């Protein structure tokens, strides 16, 4: 290699390294050193282009222009370097286009790098016209398939607010890199289409494209603007995972943080994979926090079957009495409807804290076992533990479901005494408790004291009005929900449709039904049940039957057919009633109530032979009505019983006392009131 070529290569390498520092003072020193140290060597075009790029990267447009004007031989690389420099700021964006025209005058042919820089300049101008003209030129020149050019086009259209053109560029792209995804997401964000931006981020993650720091920054800001804490936490977890992958030797705390992060954000599969990876490659043994995190992840399907094997590992590791692990085990068993297993775990832990007791209270509430929820609340207090807002809220919910006003009022007093009566979760449960107990005025009084009621509070009030058939008041609450810029959820519409059903507001019910679907809420079984009840009560039996048939629950939800069957008896529609009864009995042939209703339907139609046949079938199936349960509150305890119940431990004493009362009643008859 000639000495001059070797010197040029060395100089070019020094210039490139200096450019990477973006230090203008050092760049000028190096340029001066080149000119003074090598006076006999004229810098080659290759060296000059590198110096030009160095000044551009250091932000000195003036130095770059001076050098460009003095260059004896300017190639397309020289023009691209200066155009790129002009495209870095909006003040010089017009100069980039002027230099482009000069390039063409000198007979040079623009390449992909030229168009990339010019599109960046056009993006800074925030005007679509120059960018669209460039788009046409580069298509004609054959650069439309260049990935860098496509990405620059995408950024230009997004920044100029032309999302349709941006989507037309983005969607057909085969190899989308992180820059392309970021450009499209940024375009949505800048044009206030945050929902589409978040949706596109999800597509980016699913495409296995690794998000950049800029991606995470955009999405976290979007979640903040949308007040979407759940999505924000999920993105944060992914960001943490990205950092975790860069740790060469993660410690136990790092592993636990990752498993816990996935678990808390509902990413059960990722949590399981991380736990398996931890056991396979890590030298650490799982501690109580590891077990708590992974058990929490397995609390829901399809991973619920992993819970018991994990409990075996917990016992083997000696953490079976850990409160932290016990809490997650109890929650897991309640989620899987294994109340007995949850009780065993609770009993095995000697030092129980408030969280553990609250898990038992809330767990029984979720299982619709309000009696035991209230029982555990009182046992907790007898143990001398302080109640918190979660324990109070869960117990009040149990009182609401059991319709025990006295207990609810006592817990309300306790909430006031402990200072939790202004907690929003407690307020919502108080409103629900009073509303379900028929004390609507008390419920109204509580919601009026809440400065900013959340949707749970409004739904509780709405549910009370709906349950007691006060449709006018329910609609007023719905108006308040909308005035407070809250988004109604499925619970809101269940209460509204129930209120309409009670008052026979068919047109209003249909309007709400359409409103719910327009708001993106898919009707569930309870919504269909309310609508079927509304239509069938109003005598619109055919419309009600058509709604059941068209619903996704027609084959497995017998409650819909039962509601129709009941109205068929009222409106004496024999044929439809039989069809409804057959649908129920196809799913549950032993349903006693349906057999009774079918028998009544035959009787109303005067088909006594069918009545006898149905009754015989009931006897053949040995069907009996389910016993009706009652409960009574005595000395702060709830006692559940049914007719003929002999299971109470103090049955003998109760029977003796009852005989004594009966005898006294006979011996003290006031004959003044006898005929």
Automatic annotation (TrEMBL):
GO molecular function, one term: RNA binding
Origin species: Thlaspi arvense (Field penny-cress)
Coiled-coil segments on the chain, per record: none
Name of this chain's protein: Pentatricopeptide repeat-containing protein
Gene Ontology biological process terms, A to Z: plant organ development; RNA modification
UniProt keywords, alphabetically: Repeat
PROSITE patterns named in the record: PPR
Lineage, uppermost ranks: Eukaryota, Viridiplantae, Streptophyta, Embryophyta, Tracheophyta
PPR repeat positions: 75-110, 177-211, 251-286, 353-387, 454-488, 489-523
